[in-house]
Structure formats: structure tokens, C-alpha cells
Design brief:
The chain is built from 3 helices and 4 strands; from the N terminus they run E-H-E-H-E-H-E. It is an alpha/beta fold. The protein is globular.
């Protein structure tokens, strides 16, 4: 069994510092947060350890290399918006970014993307 953590708990660390912390504390893996760069609207949201917007193969190779140097595996990429937000513009933006995270996972060779299925709070659970 491998023990890891979600990088959102260390929002102020750069990726290099995050990898160093994980290695020093004996963690085998980390789920790297991929929120759009900007201000967080809630706790643990808005954390960006991998900026997936415009991610290139070269940058993906650098990220993988830095994690590999520390002996820490990327267990998944995380982005937890509400793709069923009742505001269509908010929902579209969430879905568009989820697609960028999926594309980034492929570039990084990461087989796991973690997200939130969503909920429209103006509808019942059954209607959602």
C-alpha cells in the first residue's frame, strides 16, 4: 500500500517544495491540484500545483522529472468544481477545465483524474 496526500493541504508550497516535503515525510505519492490559476473561493479550492492551461510536453516532462527525483509518484490530478452549477456559464467553465485536466493527465502519464460529479442545488437529489 502506498500512502499519499492531496496537495491542496499545502497551498503555499511550490511544486518543488511540495515534492521535497512528501519525500522527507515518507509519502509515496501525491494527488496534485490543478485548479485554474487565480483566487480560491473556498478552502482547498484554487490550489494550483500544476497549471494545466497550455501545458506542454516539455513542461510535463519537467514536472514528472522533479517528482521522480524525489521518489514521489503522482497518484492523480485533482480539480473539484461544480460542473452542474445552475449558472450555465459557471458549469461550462468547470467542464472546460476538467477537459484540460484530463488532457494534462495524458501528457503527464497519469492514469487518474479526480473531480466532483456536481450538484445543482436548485434541484432535488433525484433530479440531479
Amino acid at each position: 500500500m502506498q500512502l499519499g496526500f492531496v496537495s491542496a493541504i499545502l497551498p503555499d508550497l511550490a511544486l518543488n517544495e511540495l515534492a521535497a516535503f512528501a519525500a522527507a515525510e515518507g509519502f509515496a505519492c501525491v494527488e496534485l491540484m490543478c485548479w485554474p490559476v487565480g483566487r480560491a473561493e473556498r478552502k482547498y479550492a484554487g490550489v494550483t500545483h500544476v497549471d494545466v492551461t497550455g501545458l506542454t510536453k516539455t513542461r510535463a516532462d519537467e514536472i514528472r522529472g522533479r517528482m521522480r527525483e524525489r521518489g514521489v509518484r503522482i497518484s492523480g490530478l485533482g480539480f473539484y468544481p461544480n460542473p452542474l452549477d445552475p449558472d450555465p456559464a459557471v458549469a461550462r467553465a468547470a467542464v472546460a477545465h476538467i477537459r484540460r485536466v484530463i488532457a494534462a493527465a495524458e501528457l503527464l502519464g497519469v492514469g487518474q483524474v479526480n473531480t466532483f460529479v456536481g450538484r445543482d442545488w436548485t434541484k432535488s437529489v433525484d433530479d440531479n
